[in-house]
Design a protein that fits this description.
Number of helices: 13
Strand content: 15-25%
Largest sheet: 7 strands, mixed
Number of strands: 15
Length: about 350
């Protein structure tokens, strides 16, 4: 089969690799029908994730059809249409039993496209199928479902839920890429008084308006004073969601929240950021980070199926699966191409 493989910083190939088979009783093999590329994949290609070994098939988000299951799989059979979650869960370890699937110590967590071969291929082996796959209802299309593999649960859990967004809050989202747009969409579920998006790109600021941002700001405009001018009490944001993954965006978030506010870091960082404790200690700030657990995936899938959660507009470019290299090129040059999410489909 063909797959996108990593061969060191800056090196990737669409090449022939062995078709995966069931190795363990809990495995399932999935034919990939639709797949996308994540910003984390770009971090891997930059060399920011040293655990990824040369030859690894990348990707951790896909929708597909079950073709083979191990003897221990109970809930899925060949022919089932499924969502492949970015997080695999053994379901038995202490972390999984408390819902911390991202920290699975039994062989799961973020393993696809990281520690084992991933989804940017014609077929993929998924471990712990019963606790790592989700059956898709007929009314949810492949393109819609793709957004539930990673960006929607990540933004919701690590940004909105960990940030404790509440009704009436002012929420600022720094970065209006796919993660930022998903954070805007899911923050709206909690009834904030206003959502402010910050991004240097005019196109992404326009996209943020389409996804529900009340106010959009360019970087030079993003100050605590500017946010204070939008609120009844003249103070800055209750919650700042970092959705980029660079030191400047994290440090900006710490300046945009009011005393007692919350900075929820979602972005994947490849470089150290400065934590200005000399300024922050007295402001009673809470700072959280996290890897998504995907405990919210069933809820978000229900909301999507019921028309309560929209994903239209997140995917801006579409390709055939065999156009993987072109899709990577388009996604990696988002500032030039206007790409948000790209989707690749089996032909």
């Amino acid at each position: 089969m063909k797959a996108l493989t990593y061969h060191g910083a800056g090196q990737h190939r669409w090449e022939d690799v062995p078709t995966p088979t069931v190795r363990d009783p809990q495995d399932a093999v999935i034919r990939v029908d639709a797949v996308t590329i994540c910003g984390t994949d770009l971090h891997i290609l930059k060399g920011d994730v040293p655990e990824v070994e040369p030859g690894r098939v990348l990707g951790h988000e896909a929708v597909g059809t079950v073709t083979e299951v191990g003897a221990g799989v109970r809930d899925f059979t060949p022919g089932d249409r499924v969502l492949i979650s970015c997080i695999s869960s053994c379901g038995r370890c202490r972390n999984c039993r408390t819902g911390a699937y991202g920290q699975c110590s039994g062989g799961g967590g973020w393993v696809l496209g990281h520690l084992i071969d991933g989804t940017q291929a014609e077929y993929v082996r998924v471990p712990f199928a019963d606790t790592s796959l989700y059956k898709l209802p007929e009314m949810v299309g492949d393109e819609e479902a793709l957004m539930l593999a990673d960006i929607l649960p990540t933004s919701y859990e690590v940004g909105v839920r960990n940030g404790h967004v509440r009704p009436g809050d002012t929420v600022v989202v720094v970065g209006a890429g796919p993660i930022g747009l998903a954070a805007i969409t899911t923050a709206r579920l909690f009834g904030p008084s206003r959502v402010v998006a910050v991004d240097p790109s005019p196109a992404r600021r326009d996209a943020a308006k389409g996804f529900g941002a009340d106010v959009v700001l360019d970087l030079p405009e993003a100050t605590a004073e500017a946010l204070g001018s939008l609120t009844m009490d003249g103070r800055a944001a209750h919650v700042a969601i970092e959705a980029v993954g660079v030191p400047e965006s994290f440090e900006l978030c710490t300046r945009l929240v009011r005393p007692g506010g919350h900075v929820a870091n979602v972005g994947v960082h490849g470089k150290p950021a400065t934590l200005h404790l000399e300024d922050l200690w007295i402001r009673n700030l809470t700072i959280t980070t996290g890897l998504v657990d995907t405990t919210s995936t069933p809820l978000l899938l229900d909301l999507l199926a019921e028309g309560r959660l929209g994903t239209d507009g997140m995917i801006t470019h579409r390709f055939g699966l065999d156009e993987m290299l072109a899709a990577y090129d388009t996604f990696s040059r988002a500032a030039e191409t206007g790409a948000l999410k790209v989707a690749l489909f089996r032909r």
